[in-house]
Amino acid sequence: MLNWEKINLVLLDMDGTLLDLHFDNFFWHNHIPSKYAQAHNVSLAEAQRYLHIETSKVAGEIEWYCLDYWTDKLDLPIVELKKEIQHKIALRPDTLPFLSALKAANKQVVLLTNAHPDSLSLKVERTALDQHIDVLISTHRYGATKESQVLWQKLQADLKFENDSTLFVDDNLTILNSAKEFGIQHLLAVANPDSTLPNINAVHLQGYSYITDYKNIIDDII
User: Fold this and answer.
1) Where in the sequence is the domain holding 193, given as residue range(s)?
2) What is the dihedral of CA 212, 215, 219, 222, to 10 degrees?
């Protein structure tokens, strides 16, 4: 599936790729609508409708991922609300074996997330991901998301990586397409980002190589 002998750098998404996406899905689809409805005295259905409209306006943009933006837009303490359900933050069960294998194979490992720095900090605090990864990067430092070619240009200028020896892993097909457009040669999709939802059907993965359990590729890495 992947030629590990040709891969030196592994760029890893966080939510859905290393962490169970259930936390984020629950937060935005359940927790926030409920809190918004309570705070603004509207029905849950009205809150959900409003959130859908507002998130659609900035999909894929830095604002979509920006906790400061949503704190102002919704007039809610987003970081504090995340902390209310932080017990739901969890590593995928196959993440640590995967990261250990990458370390054993002397691969450089970089976390590349669109998550806001405050969200990244909370998740690192809960999971100790920083103990297993060489560099952690929030795309907010560049003012651009992984959906944008600008991000990839700035990231390459910083990390000096070669496209043909870099692997990028993500559960978002739009982002994988962006990495492909930039020229990243090795791409891997995650077909089960949320443990509470069915796996994504291979038909919908646009021909990308994909995993549902990193442990299945550990022997190939080492």
Assistant:
1) 4-20+90-221
2) 110
> Does 166 lie in the same domain as 106?
yes
Q: What is the pTM of this model?
A: 0.96
Determine the average pLDDT of the residues in 108-134: 98
Provide the domain count of the chain: 2
Element of type H or E holding 181: helix 173-182
Do 103 and 114 lie in one domain? The reply is yes
What's the rounded Cα separation, in Å, for the pair 112 and 128? 16
* Interstrand relation of 108-113 and 135-138 (parallel, antiparallel or unpaired): parallel
Going 117 to 101 to 131 to 28, the CA torsion angle's sign is positive
What is the tens place of the pLDDT at every residue in 21-46?
999 999 999 999 999 999 999 999 99
- Whole-number Å distance between alpha carbons of 153 and 25: 30
Contact 182, 152 (CB under 8 A): yes
Asked which of 70, 87, 104 is the last residue of a domain, the reply is: 87
Instruction: Say if residue 27 is in the same domain as residue 101.
Output: no
| 175 and 105 co-located in one domain | yes
Which domain-ending residue is among 61, 87, 113?
87
Helices 32-40 and 44-57, packing angle to 10 deg: 110
98 and 208 in a single domain? The answer is yes
DSSP state of 209: -
Encode pLDDT of 71-102 as tens digits: 999 999 999 999 999 999 999 999 999 999 99
